[in-house]
Amino acid sequence: MAQQITLALDWTPNTNHIGFYVAMSKGWYQDAGLDVVLLSPEDDNYQTTPAAKVAQGAAMLAIAPSESALSYYLHPAKPSLVAIAAIAQRDTSAIVTLASSGIDRPAKLDGRRYASYNARFERAIVAQMIRNDGGKGEFDEIFPPKLGIWETLLQGVADATWVFLPWEGVQARRAGIALNAFRLDDYGIPYGYTPILLAHPAAVRQHGDALRAFLAVTAAGYRFAVEHPGEAVELLITAANHPTLTERAFVAESFAELAPALLTADGRWGVMESKRWWAFVTWIERQGLVVDRDGQPIPLAPETYRELFTNDLLAG
């Protein structure tokens, strides 16, 4: 009997997920004795985060940013989740503004409106980016529905938001909308891996062999996509069958921008470096963000970052 692996997606099907859809379309998961089920966040209108689905036992795996691993580690009443693979090797996200707004550097976001996903460390990260550029880090945060966040920028409701450049950035470019993009690394913020695959520690213990097989097949899916982008794009469009993927030229352009970020220089998928996790966790702690519900600091052991991720399930 096939081992079922449920994966909670972080967003509607997109090019970040291409390796999963390639592997499914090729029958590689089935060949490995796996029944892979992808859970769309649309099912509950984004009410439950992918990480929460894993914590609650509704999914075995979730796609999430590095912050989710740290957030669950710090929560006294929730299980610590562990990152088992990085979907991308470098951050392809950015804080963006419309070029027509004149907000051409983070410091100019002081006093402006930022459309937020309401993630735990989001406001602090954006504020520090502004301060690192010479601003005060003071801005108004609004919380539109997740599917409407991008539209708030285009409609002038918000002055800035956080996007994936291979998706919304490409959408803007194809529509002739010029953006200013502020990457965190360019402003002294050592952002972690995003997105990553999160697992419940119990699943790692109980289903380690199945997860190893899943990651091996998934890695093959992403490598195939990088090596055969045209076919991979067709497989994604057909298998996902989602209205956001109907325009082939857009999907191909999106993946062309994303593909260079998916593998290491020597062609590996999923691996994570200790120094990158250390830098991210250390930065978060030094900003005074590791606190309990009462705002009191939570001391972290020097090796805490090592508990947030593992490469042990990755082949090679």
Concise structural overview:
The protein is an alpha/beta fold and 316 residues long. Helices cover 37% and strands 15% of the residues.
If you had to describe this structure to a student in words, what would you say it looks like?
By secondary structure, the chain is α/β, with parallel strands linked by helices. It has two domains: 3-89 and 193-308, Periplasmic binding protein-like II (D-Maltodextrin-Binding Protein, domain 2); 93-187, Periplasmic binding protein-like II (D-Maltodextrin-Binding Protein, domain 2, 3-Layer(aba) Sandwich). It has twelve helices and ten strands. The protein has helices spanning 18-26, 28-31, 50-55, 66-74, 122-132, 149-154, 165-174, 201-206, 208-227, 229-240, 248-258, 274-286; strands spanning 3-8, 34-39, 61-64, 82-86, 93-98, 113-115, 140-142, 160-164, 179-182, 196-199. The strands form two sheets. A five-stranded mixed beta sheet has the order 2-1-3-10-4. It is globular, with a radius of gyration of 19 Å.
In the CATH hierarchy, what is the architecture of the largest domain at level 2?
3-Layer(aba) Sandwich
CATH class of the largest domain: Alpha Beta
Low-confidence stretches: none
Q: Residue share in helices?
A: 25-40%
What best-fitting shape do the alpha-carbon axes yield? Answer: globular
Count of individual beta strands: 10
Q: H/E order of the elements? A: EHHEHEHEEEHEHEHEEHHHHH
Q: What is the number of helical segments per DSSP (H or I, 4+ residues)?
A: 12
Overall tally of structural domains: 2
The CATH superfamily of the largest domain is known as Periplasmic binding protein-like II
Structural class: alpha/beta
Mean pLDDT: 95
Q: Major sheet: size, sense and barrel closure? A: 5 strands, mixed
Give the DSSP E fraction (strand runs of 2 or more residues): 5-15%
> How far is the N terminus from the C terminus?
27 Å
